[in-house]
Write a structure and sequence with these properties.
single chain, alpha+beta, 5-stranded antiparallel beta sheet, 1 helix, 40% strand, globular
Length: 68
């Protein structure tokens, strides 16, 4: 299991995920990020510019997607 962190970037402001979540592979983490972005988009225009960044436990960015 690998620990993944789901940071939210709102313009120049970063909301860091300090807890993270464990997944058996990066594909599961990417699916989680897509779900998170979809949930953020439900907040309307306020969150539509947010970017979800997925970073693994080594600090490598593995995926990003915009709430839309």
């Amino acid at each position: 299991m690998t620990q993944y962190f789901f940071h939210i970037l709102d313009g120049s402001k970063l909301f860091a995920d300090e807890l993270g979540k464990s997944f058996s592979n990066s594909e599961e983490a990417i699916n989680q990020a897509k779900c998170l972005a979809a949930e953020l988009s439900k907040a309307g225009d306020f969150c539509r510019s947010n970017l979800v960044l997925v970073v693994d436990e080594r600090g490598q960015r593995i995926f990003e997607c915009r709430a839309s």
